[in-house]
Amino acid sequence: MTDFASTKALFHIPEGLIYLDGNSLGPLPLAAPARMAQAMTDEWGAMLITGWNRGGRDGTGWMGQPMALGDRVGRLIGAERGHVVLGDTLSIKVYQALTSALMLNPGRRVILSDNGNFPSDLYMAEGLCALLGQSYSLRVVAPEEVADAIDDSVAALMITEVDYRTGRRHDMAALTARAHALGAFAIWDLAHSAGALPVDVAAGGADFAVGCTYKYLNGGPGAPAFIYVAPRHADRTPPALSGWLGHAAPFAFDLTYRPGAGVERMRVGTPPVLALAALEASLDIWDSVDMAALRAASLALTDRFIAGVEAACPMLTLATPRDHAQRGSQVSFRFSEGYAAMQALIARGVVGDFRAPDIMRFGFTPLYIDAANVDRAVEIIAQVMGDRLWDQPEYRRRAAVT
Ligand SMILES: *Cc1c(COP(=O)(O)O)cnc(C)c1O
To answer: Among 157, 343, 355, 397, which is 20 to 30 Å from 81 by CA?
Structure first.
């Protein structure tokens, strides 16, 4: 069992804030600044170029960090050891997984996704189809229609397990099994799953999985993404972004590309060493977290929040499934003036976010949110909604990031 009271003490949460936006940007682990300072001063500063071979907290070299830390993320998503690597951003990793799946399934031309997916994933697929031409296309259906939309034209399913707006969760094992039965690959985006709930890519049969580390994994703004390639594909996957660090022998400086072993071929260029050091401070916390305990705590928090808000705020409409099996680790309510209402909440220390057109989104992360925080947030929401405190011009002015 994880003691969530003790994990809470490992994060910096500004005084007076109830931070319900760790699903968008996780908070700072208290150990991260010292780890970053060490990476900058003792490694970059003192070691300079030799850090590639002897940097890193354990002295095994910066070059090995994307795989070493990849395994620690891998435990959280049920990956086999040695099959997750860190680097780049999630959009890039989506593109890599898609191109690999299309190359492994050459007779088919359709990428299937749903309209609850995060737009960047859909944009990357559109761009890839435009590049490939030859009748490649992206087919987007409603989330509940995905299973029935898989047919023998579909090369790959590209699905985000937990909907970023509503928190609705797809059934990874069932959709993957159906995709495989019909000859399609299954690519899972775990942006709102990794660190949010137990994931088992191996048992679920995922062919590829991707995700980011700055949301629930608390790696910091711009922290690197991850990619998982199932062991059965790892040594045969053609890497479309064939950068030198995915080469079998980067320092042979061959003039032609030979893919590296397994998932290492999904590396592209120079790893973000400083960002990896910050992420490492967060993974030190995650290493001790029991994912089943995390899930139980998360469901208790989201149930408590739903019950409290529904009892106090009849004007808010729940957008998140009540069924535990279909819920991620966030709760969303629809409200026509949701943007202004969220600004009014943020001004009173309850930090969630807004997703167009009308979603007020609240993330629940047992690592640093407890039942008392939920109760206090509900009180403040009840006051803001009940007294229409959001109805002020200053709360309607939109910032670039919502
Ligand atoms: C957050 C998120 C992204 C963001 O991609 P970046 O390249 O890291 O900016 C992409 N896809 C999904 C599903 C997300 O939730």
So the answer is: 157
